Amino acid sequence: EAGVTQFPSHSVIEKGQTVTLRCDPISGHDNLYWYRRVMGKEIKFLLHFVKESKQDESGMPNNRFLAERTGGTYSTLKVQPAELEDSGVYFCASSLQGVTEAFFGQGTRLTVV
Amino acid sequence: AQKVTQAQTEISVVEKEDVTLDCVYETRDTTYYLFWYKQPPSGELVFLIRRNSFDEQNEISGRYSWNFQKSTSSFNFTITASQVVDSAVYFCALSEAAGANNLFFGTGTRLTVIP
Fold this sequence. Notes:
The structure holds 2 protein chains of 2 kinds. By secondary structure, chain A is an all-beta fold. Chain A has strands spanning 5-7, 10-13, 19-24, 31-37, 43-50, 53-56, 65-69, 75-79, 88-95, 103-104, 108-112. In chain A, the strands form 2 sheets. In chain A, strands 2, 4, 5, 6, 9, 10 and 11 form a 7-stranded mixed sheet that branches. The mean pLDDT of chain B is 94. At the A-B interface, strand 4, strand 5, strand 9 and strand 10 of A face strand 6 and strand 11 of B.
């Protein structure tokens, strides 16, 4: 069974550009989460989808970040326009309904120059 | 406010030694959950354990054991007879929910096991 897959694995963009990160959760997982780790700091929660609905987006830093989950399947996280402080590793995780462990992807390393 | 502190940034041990990774947490919630994740060189976070605040029993899983002490707000992780494959970054996390929503992570401890 495929795990959580994230694309791309690395992305280097210039300040002011737009970047879209993609997450393919494990098939059948209704819960999907985005987290990010800014260099040297903690991994921080961004938002949580249940199917296609945003359940909790309290961690989204500002309106330059837009997350979507089309049809309750894969999810995208768009950063527009990117700023230097957006650099870090963006993780996606998914889990089944109920009290279950979450499976994380390998992350997308975003570098804004 | 919720906070997790992993004071050990990096630890190196020789293979077969035991090692304990410390985790201290802060929360005002009476119900909460504690987690440990492992991040191997491949990058993904691998779930190791979840513990709720009402269950202070220590847990052992093979060479891994966890010591949860509410009195000291600690949830320490011990690896017995360490192996090279244990080399990874280990994260402790705290949440008010049992799932992966809004986890508060520590900064991680990088463990290197030297053969």
